[in-house]
């Protein structure tokens, strides 16, 4: 089990999607961490190269926080995360973007718990 610290970036992978989150707190007794979703990335796996599909980087910074099993996450290097963060525009309170981000997060969670 990896040891996480607050403010660390971690990732939850499922099929061709990666959910990048910031660790808010760790609940060691339950092997759970409280995370704040930041970005959801859909990856194209053609030619064994992983790269985001056009318009498949979703801004989740204003969606709901999650409590999740620590063992499901992996630690993320800055170089991996920054390439996706750089593709995000400055956040605007656009209701349509907020709804899309919430829908994408919900669909991702449904895929994982199946």
Any key phrases for this structure?
alpha+beta; 114 residues; six-stranded antiparallel β-sheet; 6 strands
Mean of residue pLDDT values:
86
Low-confidence stretches: none
State the end-to-end distance: 23 Å
The biggest sheet, with number of strands, parallel, antiparallel or mixed sense and barrel status, is: 6 strands, antiparallel
How many strands appear in the DSSP assignment?
6
Number of domains: 1
Which helices and strands, and how do they pair?
Elements: E1 9-14, E2 17-27, E3 32-44, E4 51-59, E5 66-69, E6 74-75, H1 78-85, H2 95-113
Antiparallel strand pairs: 1-2, 1-6, 2-3, 3-4, 3-5
Q: Please, could you describe this protein's structure?
A:
- The chain has 114 residues and is of the alpha+beta class.
- Helices cover 24% and strands 39% of the residues.
- The protein has one domain (9-113).
- Strands 1, 2, 3, 4, 5 and 6 form a 6-stranded antiparallel β-sheet that branches.
- A hairpin with a 2-residue loop joins β1 (9-14) and β2 (17-27).
- The protein is globular.
- The relative contact order is 0.22.
- The model has no long low-confidence stretch (mean pLDDT 86).
């Amino acid at each position: 089990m990896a040891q996480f610290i607050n403010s660390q970036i971690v990732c939850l992978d499922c099929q061709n999607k990666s959910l990048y989150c910031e660790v808010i707190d760790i609940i060691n007794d339950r092997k759970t961490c409280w995370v704040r979703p930041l970005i959801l990335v859909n990856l194209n796996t053609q030619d064994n190269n992983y790269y985001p599909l056009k318009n498949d980087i979703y801004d989740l910074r204003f969606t709901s926080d999650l409590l999740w099993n620590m063992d499901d996450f992996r630690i993320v290097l800055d170089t991996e995360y920054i390439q996706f963060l750089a593709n995000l525009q400055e956040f605007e309170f656009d209701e349509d973007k907020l709804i899309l981000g919430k829908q994408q997060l919900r669909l991702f969670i449904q895929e994982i718990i199946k």
